[in-house]
Amino acid sequence: MIRYYIQAMEPHMNFRKPSLAPSRLALAAGIGVAAIAAPAAAQSAADRTVTTAAPAPVEDDVHNRQGEYDGNIIVSASGVQELDLLAGTAVVEIKDVQRDAATGQIGDLLAKLPGVSATSFAPGSSRPVLRGQQGERVRVLVDGVGTADVSNTSVDHATTIEPITIERIEVLRGPAVLLYGSQAIGGAVNVIDKRIPTRMPDEAFHIDAFAGVDSASDLRTGAASIDVGLTDNLVAHVDGSWRKTGDIRIGGFQVAPALRADLLADAGEEEEEGELEEAAELREAANQRGRVPNTAMESWTVNAGLGLVLGESTFGASLGWYDTNYGVPTRPGAGHHHGEEGAEEGGEEEGEELVTIGLKQFRADFKGDVFLGEGAFERLKLRVGYSDYTHTEFEGTEVGTVFDSTGLEARAELVQNTGGTLRGSTGLQYNHRDFFAVGAEAYIPPNLTDQVALFTLQEYGTGPFQLEAAARAEFTKVKAQTLGIENDYDTFSGALGAVYSGLPGIRIGINGSRAERAPSAEELFANGPHIATQAFEIGDPDLRTERAWGLEAYARGSIGRGTFGLTAYRQWFDNYIFLEETGAEEDDLPVFRYLQQDADFWGFEAEVSYPVVDTGSFRLLADASASYVEAELGDGTAVPRIPPLSLLGALEAQTNAFDVRGEVQWFDDQNRVSGVETPTDSFTLVNALVAWRPLADNQNVTLQVAADNIFDVNGRRHASFTKDFVPLMGRNFRASVRLSF
Q: What one-character DSSP code corresponds to residue 125?
C-alpha cells in the first residue's frame, strides 16, 4: 500500500562521495553558467521525507538515487522542509511498481491510490485521473519536465513512459503543484527514472533487471539496466525494456448492458428489413465475451546516460528511444448505420478495419545540480528535456493520420539555504511545442505553443506554526499558422497555506489557492472527426482563461503505531472548459463543442495503516483508503466522466523473507452523468499476492506471484471514454522477478 510521507527512513545507501578539487569546482561553475545561457530547467528536490509502514528492505547503492546522503527519500519540490502545500502527495516506490504494474501504462499503475483513477481507454493507452480531472488539467512529468508526447490531445494517445523502468513515482495534488505549470491545475504525476545517474556505484558495476508474465493478456515483459563507474567521478547508465501482450481477457460480455440491448435491437430491425448479414454481425458484436478484440500491444525502449559527480554538484545527460504499437478498440456496431445506403457501400467495411497506433519518441535530457555554498542560495538546479515525437494511426494497413510534435521544456531554479526561518526556491521555466497532424483524423490544425513562467515557493517559521506561499506568473502564446490566429494569455496563480504541528506526530493545515489556466491548442482549434472518442469535435478560438479558487484542509501523521492521512478539498471554477454534445451529427458522429461554464468540484481522500501485530520479525498490517469526488456545472448538470466513490481494504503479513497481501477494492455505481454518458454499475475487485525475498543479504531480489480480480468480475471505469466496450481485465495471474545487485 502506498502511504503519505510521515517520517525519515533508516539510512540504507552506501555511496562514495568523491572529493571536489578546486579545478573541478571551477568546471562545475562554468557548466552551470553555460546551462543558464540556454533555456534550462530544474528538477526540484524537497527535504520532505517518505516512508512505508513495511520494514524497510536493505537497499542497494543505486536505487533511490534521488535520496539524500542520509537515506531520506525526497519529494521533488525544492527547498521546503515539509511542503504542506502539496498536502495530497503520495509516493510509489519501486517495489510497489512491481506489485501493481499489470499493464504498460502509467494510469492503471496508479489507480489504487486515493483520489486517483485512470482513463483506461485501452491497455496501450491509459493516463491518470486526479480528483476527477484529466487531459489538459493533469501534467505527466519525467523528473520534473513534461513527457512531450500528445497524450493530452486525446485519450487514445499513449503516454511515453514504460513503468518497468521507473525508480519512483510522485503523485502531486494541491495548490503548489502549479509550480509545474498551469496544465497541472488538477495535479501532476512526476516519474523518477534511472536515465541520468547522479550517484557513483559502490562496486565496479551495478545491474537491475525485471521480468514478468501474466495470464489475462499473455504478457511477456523484461527490462534490464547497468550502471558502471568509468572514473572516480563519471558514471554511465544503459537500460532497455520490452513488453508484448495479446488481446485482453475479460470476465463477461465485452459491451455494457445498455449498449448490448441497443445492438440486439438494431439486429432485429436489420433482420426485419432482410439485411441478414448485418443482423448477424450486430448479434455477434452484442454477444462477444471473454476477450476484447484489437487490444494487443508491443513496446520497447532503450536509454543511455552519463553522470558527472563533483562532490556536492552533479551533472548528467541522457538519450532515449520509446517505440510502441497498440490496438485501438472501436465501438461495436459503429460501422453500421441502419437504413442508410452508405452503410451498405462502405460502412460495413469500415467497421471491420482494425485501427492501430505506431508511436515513436526520441528524447534528450540534461540535468544539473550546482552546489553554491553557505550563502543565501544553496543550489542552482537545471533541467532540460527535448522530444521529437511521431505517432501514426493505421486503418488496417493504410496510414490514416500522422501526428508530429517536437517539444522543448527547460527549468532553472535557485534553492535557498534551509538554515533560516525562510526557506524555498525561485525559478524560471520555458516550454515550446510545435504540433502538426495530417490525414483523415487531423482534426487539429498545425499550431505552435510558447510559454514562459516565473515561480516561487516559500516556507516561513520554525515553531509549531508555519506559513507557506507559492506563486506562478505564466505568459502563453498559442498560434495556429494555417488559420491566421494567434492568442496570448497572461495568467497568475498563487497559494497560501498555514500549518500547525504542535500535536505529537500530527500535522494539520489549510491551503487556499487561486489558479489560472490558458486554453490549449486542442480546445481552441479542434475541428473535425475524432473517432477515438466517437465525436466530431469543434473548438472555440475565443475561449477565455480558465480560473479556479481552491480550498484544502488536511491532517496527517501517526497515532500510536499507525499512520493516517486525510484531505478534503473544494474548487470553484470560472470559465471551466468542457465538451458538450450539440445534438447535431457530422460524418455520422455526434458533434461536440468546447464550451465554458462555471463548475464546482469537491471531495476527500483518506488513508490509514495500522500494524495489528508487530513482533519485530513478523508484522500484520491493516490498510484502508477511500476517495470521493463530485463535480457539477453551473447549470446543475454533472461534469462528465467523474469517478465514483471507491474504497480499498487490505491485510498484509510481512516477514524479512515474505510479504503476503490480500485486498478488496470496491467502486460505487455512478449515476450522475452528462450528455451521451451512460451510468456505470458498481463492482468489486479481490486481489492477492505473495512476494518472496530469498536472499537474506540482498532483499532487492524479489519473486512475486499475484492474482488480480480473482472472481473474474466485469468492471468498468466511469472515467473512461470506452467503458461501454472496454472493461477491465478479468481474472489475471501474474508472476515476476526483480533483481538488483
A: B
Instruction: List strands edge to edge, sheet with 138-142.
Output: 90-92, 166-172, 187-193, 138-142, 145-146
Distance CA 447, CA 117 (A): 30
Q: What are phi and psi of 239, to 5 degrees?
A: -145, 160
Q: Phi and psi dihedrals of 730, rounded to 5?
A: -80, -155
Q: What is the pLDDT of residues 91-133, one digit of tens each?
A: 888 778 878 776 668 888 889 999 999 999 988 899 999 999 9
> What's the grid cell of residue 546?
480558465
Cβ-based neighbours of 229, under 8 Å, separated by 6 or more: 200, 201, 204, 205, 235
pLDDT of amino acid 527: 92
- Using CB atoms within 10 Å of the CB of residue 293, give its burial: 0 to 12 exposed, 13 to 18 middle, 19+ buried: middle
Task: Name the nearest CA neighbour of 6 among 345, 507, 616, 623.
Answer: 507
What region does 615 belong to: left with phi over 0, alpha with psi -120 to 50, or beta? alpha
The pLDDT assigned to 542 comes to: 96
Q: What's the helix, strand, coil split of the chain in %, to 5?
A: 10, 50, 35
Burial of 514 (0-12, 13-18, 19+ CB in 10 A): middle
Buried b (16+ CB within 10 A) or exposed e, 59-90: bbbbbbbbbeeebbbbbbbbbbbbbbbbbbbb
For 150, how many CA atoms within 13 A lie in the half-sphere containing its CB? Answer: 28
Mean model confidence pLDDT for the chain: 84
Q: What's the DSSP call for residue 341?
A: H
CA atoms within 13 A on the CB side of 420: 13
pTM metric for this prediction: 0.85
Q: What is the 3-state secondary structure (H, E, C) of 219-276?
A: CEEEEEEEEEECCCCEEEEEEEEEEEECCCEEEEECCCHHHHHHHHHHHHHHHHCCCH
Q: Which 3 state secondary structure label does DSSP give 25?
A: helix
Q: What percent of the chain has pLDDT over 70?
A: 84
Residues 315, 34 contacting (CB under 8 angstroms):
no
pLDDT in tens, 287-300: 999 999 999 999 99
Strand partners, 330: none
